[in-house]
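hey so i finally got around to running the thing on that chain from the lab meeting. sorry it took forever, my laptop kept dying and i had to restart like 3 times. anyway pasting the input first so we r on the same page abt which one it is
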Amino acid sequence: CYTICMKQNLIHSRTCVYNINYHVVWSVKYRAKVLTPELENRMQKIAAETAAEKGFTVHLFEVGDRDHVHCFLSAKPDISVSYMVKMLKGITARKLFMEFPELKLKLRKGVLWNHSYYVETIGSVSEENIRRYIEKQTNSY
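ok and heres what got predicted. didnt touch it at all, straight out
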């Protein structure tokens, strides 16, 4: 017997809450410093649209040092973190290359994202602490 908490969009089963939070970081290939404020704004919009379409939530999406991304995600357990990262990296790269063709010329071999990523499940750390950490990682351009 499941009930839905409309305020937080979480699914409850008696006393358990099923929603997993992740802090994910990935970088530009060869750590090229190509992510401008304009690209960051566009990526944030693309990430929010992608998440809504694919059934997960992007709480925070920030560029750090112009060469990597910090992302705070949450989803039900039936959506894997690898799927979310694959969707975000793939769709942002494709759309950015279509909208900013000069970006591909700034990158070696025309590849935007490194293949790897770092992910951490957020359990005992509060959401507010993660938000503060990610916001501190962003640099002013």
